[in-house]
Amino acid sequence: MSVLTEKSMVRPFTFEFSDAELEDLRARIRATRWPERETVQDLSQGPPLATMQEVARYWASDYDWRKTEATLKALPHFITEIDGLDIHFIHVRSKHEDALPLIVTHGWPYSIIGLLKIIGPLTDPTAHGADASDAFDLVFPSLPGYGFSGKPTTTGWGPERIATAQIELMKRLGYTRYVAQGGDWGAIITEHMALLAPPELVGMHSNMPAVVPPDIYQALASGNRLPEGPALSDEESHAVEQLRNVFDHVYYAYIMASRPQALMALSDSPVGLAAFQMDLEERSLEMISRAFAGGSEGLTRDDVLDNVTLYWLTNTAISSARLYAENRSPFFAVKGISIPVAVSVFPDEIYTAPRSWTEQGFPNLIHYNKVDKGGHYAPWEQPKIFVEEMRKGFRSLR
Amino acid sequence: MSVSTEKSTVRPFTFEFSDAELEDLRARIRATRWPERETVQDQSQGPQLATMQEVARYWASDYDWRKIEATLKALPHFITEIDGLDIHFIHVRSKHEDALPLIVTHGWPGSVIEQLKIVEPLTDPTAHGGDASDAFHVVIPSMPGYGFSGKPTTKGWGSDHIAGAQIELMKRLGYTRYVAQGGDWGALIVDLMAVQAPPELVGIHTNMPGVVPPDVYQSLAQGNPLPEGLSFSNEEQETIEQLKFLFSHVYYAYIMATRPQSLMALTDSPVGLAAFLMDHDAASLAMISRSFAGEPEGLTRDDFLDNTTLTWLTTTAVSSGRLYGENTFPFFDVKGVTIPVAVSVFPDEIYTAPRSWTEQAYPNLIHYNKVDKGGHFAAWEQPQIFVDELRTGFRSLR
Question: Which of A34, A40, A325 lies closest to B155 in CB terms?
Fold first, then answer.
C-alpha cells in the first residue's frame, strides 16, 4: 500500500494496492496449511473446515478485490492528524442544503466497508424512495489501527480518546450541529461522544445500545448469579440469556485484550484471519457460513471478503485487536447518557435490548424500534432497514 | 510425515519427515508477514515483535530439526490403539531389574520432547549420579491430538478418558506395579489416574498439583471476592495472588476450549504458532525470550523450537487445543486423590502450591519439596532437579 498524503490539516487521501500484493495474497491462500476437520457436526467449535476451504477456494479464484476497491475509490477520502495520529475518513456531502451531518463509526471485525451500502440512500434520499428532508451529510472515520487510519504506536487510544478525536474531526469539518451513530465499537465510541456531550452533538443512534443495569451486567460478566431484585420480564430474561451466551463465547475479545501479540498468526495467514473474524458470534457465523454454502440473506461472500481483504492488505489484524486492551468501560452497561438517543434493535444482534432497560438507560430516548431482520452488522446486512431507522430515528432532531 | 505401523496391539512406531516438509517450513518462516511492533516496551502484550523476528531468523537459518529428530529416533517408539485411537508412546526399560515403572505425561503446549532430558538419568541412574535402586522404566505417551498420537475425530477425549487410556496402556505393557507423573495437563491426568486408583498404580508425583480448596478456587476462577470467614497464611495469600493473575491471563485456554476452529491460523503460520505457544505464562515467556536474546537459563532456543517444530510437522496446533474443550475438571482444585502423592514445587510454576493446601488435598502425601529453580516445564527446564525429585519422591514406594 502506498499512501499519498501531505502533512496538513484535512487532506485528500488516496490509496493503492499493487497487483503483486494481491497475487501474494492469493498465493498464500492457495498455500494454506489446514488442520484436520472439527470433531463436531455443527458450528460449535467455530468455522468448520469445509466452510473455510470454500472460503479459500472462492477467495483465491473468483473473488475480485478490484471491484470493491473501485467502489471505495469513487468516494471522497480524507485524512487528518488528530492527537498525533492520522485519522482516515470518508466524507460524502448531500446535495440537499439542509442535510443533517451524521458521523457513523464502525466496529470490529469490520471497517468502513460495512457502511458503504448506506451512503447512496442517506445522502441522496430522493433517488432512494425518500424526501429531501431525509438527507444526511456523511462522515465515516476508520478507527485508529483499522483500515487506512494510523496505527497507534503507544498505548492510550481507548474509546474515550477516539470519541474525543471524532468530536475534533467534526469540528475540523465545520459541523456545528450533527448526530452520531454506531454499532459494536462504534456504539461504544458514539456513547462516549454523547457522554462528552459537545453542544454540537444533538443526538445519537445505536444499534448495539449499552442498557444493561450495572448490577446485572456485573453478575453476568463474572458468571455469577443475578442480584436479588424485582423479577425480570420475559424480554429482559431473554436478554440475560443472550448475554450469558455472549460472555461464554467472547474469549477472542479477552485474548485480543490481554495478549494481542500472541495472535500474530493472523497477520501471516489470510485464511486464519478470515476464520478468526468470521467467528464474532453464532448468528453472524451462521449467516456467513450460509453465504459460502450458496445462501443469500444478509452478508454476501463478497461482503465478507471485501472486509477481510482490506484487513489483510492494511495488515491491521493486530493493531485493530489492541482496541480491546485499550477499552476501560463495560461493553453493555449503562453509561449515563442524557442527550437524545435513538435505538434500533435488530433481532440477530448479540443481545436484543429490551425497551424497559433502554428507557432506563437513555432518559432522553427519542426512538426505539425492533426491526424484522438483521444482526450485528446491521448497515451492512440490512442497509434498507437500517437507513429507514436513521431517517425515522433522527427526524425529530432536524 | 509417514507413519509406519500395523493394526495390532502394541506395535513399534517410526516416523519420517521429508526434506521437502522442512524446506516448506523454512520457506514459510522466511515469508512471514509481520504485524507492527507492540505498543508497550515489555512483554505485557505477549511475545514482542523483535523476539519473534529473532525466533524466525534463527529457526529458518541456524536451527536443525534433524538433531532432535535423531535423539527421538534413537528411542524405542510404539503405538497402540486404545478406545479407537492410536496412542503413541516412548518406552525405555532400565537395565536394572527392580526398576520402578513410571509413566510421565506431558502437557500443553508440549509433547514428548519435554521429557527427553530425563530419560537417561531415570533409566540409567548409575551413569547419572544415582544408585541402581533409583532406576525407572519409563513410558512417555503422546496425548490424543498431540505429537504422534492419533487425532480424535469426535468429542469425548477429555482428561478422565485419557487417564483411563493410560491405565489401559500400562496394563498392556504388563506393568502390575507402577507410578505416574505429570505437569500441566499431565498433572491433571495423573491426578485423575489416581482418582480412578487402579490397584497397580501405587503412587503419583506432580509438579502442578491440584490442591486449591474448592470454594477458594471457585471464587478465583470467577473473579469474585474470596468466601467470608477464611484466613490465609502468607504462603497461601501469595498463591492466591498468583492464581488471580493466572485467571486473567489464560484466555488462550478459554478460546481453545470454546472456538478451536477460529485459531486455524496456527496451522498455517509457523511464526504465529511459535508466538502462541511461547505465551503460555509470563514466566515461561520471559525465560524463552531471554534465550533468544542470548541469556539461556532453563529452556534453550533449540528446546523451544524442537517442540514448536514437532507441533508444526504433525499439524497438531488445533487438535491439541481441543483438549481444553474436552476437559470438564477444574485445573487446580482438589480432586480427592487418596493414594500416595509426591509433590515438587518449582518457584516459577504458574502457582506455587503451599504445603498447607497440599497436605489437605493429598491425605497420603509422601513427599513435598520446594526446589530452588525451574518453572512450568520442570522436566525440560531443570532435568537434574526434576530427576532428583522423582528419585526422592518415589523412594518410599519401592
Answer: A40
Residues 6+ apart with CB under 8 A from A280: A108, A109, A252, A350, A376
Contacts of B328 (CB under 8 A, 6+ apart): B158, B159, B160
Q: How many CB atoms lie within 10 A of CB A176?
A: 10
The packing angle between helices A301-314 and A282-292, to 10°, is: 110
What's B369's DSSP letter?
A: E
Q: How far is B255 from chain A (nearest CA, A)?
A: 5
What are the pLDDT digits (tens) for B4-49?
445 558 999 999 999 999 999 999 999 999 999 999 999 999 999 9
How many domains does chain A divide into? Answer: 1
Walk along chain B (398 residues) and give the pLDDT tens digit of each residue: 444 445 558 999 999 999 999 999 999 999 999 999 999 999 999 999 999 999 999 999 999 999 999 999 999 999 999 999 999 999 999 999 999 999 999 999 999 999 999 999 999 999 999 999 999 999 999 999 999 999 999 999 999 999 999 999 999 999 999 999 999 999 999 999 999 999 999 999 999 999 999 999 989 988 888 988 889 999 999 999 999 988 888 999 999 999 999 999 999 999 999 999 999 999 999 999 999 999 999 999 999 999 999 999 999 999 999 999 999 998 899 999 999 999 999 999 999 999 999 999 999 999 999 999 999 999 999 999 999 999 999 999 99
Crossing angle for the helix pair B19-30 and B301-313, to the nearest 10 degrees: 110
**Sign of the dihedral defined by the CA atoms of residues B10, B12, B18, B19, in that order:** positive
- Grid cell 482438589 is found at B334
Burial of B183 (0-12, 13-18, 19+ CB in 10 A): buried
In angstroms, the CA A93 to CA A101 distance is 8
End-to-end CA distance of chain B: 40
Rounded to an integer, what distance in angstroms lies between the CA atom of residue A308 and that of residue A316? 10
Query: Cell numbers at residue A154, please?
Result: 503507544
What CATH number corresponds to the domain at position A176? 3.40.50.1820
In chain A, which stretches have pLDDT less than 70?
1-8
> Are B149 and B141 spatial neighbours (Cβ–Cβ below 8 Å)?
yes
ipTM over 0.85: yes
**Given B223, B258, B264, which is nearest A222 (Cβ)?**
B223
B33 to A315: CB separation less than 8 angstroms, yes or no: yes
Residue keyed to cell 511464526:
B271
Catalytic residues of B: 184, 324, 376
Query: Parallel, antiparallel, or unpaired: how do β-strands B365-370 and A341-345 relate?
Result: unpaired
**Optimal mutation site among A33, A261, A286, interface B, most CBs of chain B within 10 A:** A261
Q: In 3-state terms, what secondary structure has residue A206?
A: strand
Give the whole-angstrom CA distance, residue A363 versus residue A357: 10
* Distance between B30 CA and the closest CA of chain A, angstroms: 11
The beta-strand segments (E) located in A106-175 are 136-141
Interface of B with A in 307-336 (CB under 8 A): 315, 317-319, 322, 325
> What percent of chain B is predicted at pLDDT more than 70?
98
Domains and CATH numbers, chain B: 2-211+249-397 (3.40.50.1820)
**Contact present, A297 and B64 (Cβ < 8 Å):** no
Q: Which three cell numbers stand for residue A74?
A: 469513487
Helical H runs in A250-281?
251-258, 270-278
Residues of A designated as active site = 184, 324, 376
Domain with A225 in it: 2-395
Extended strands (E) in chain A: 2-4, 11-12, 14-16, 77-82, 85-92, 100-105, 136-141, 178-182, 201-206, 341-345, 365-370
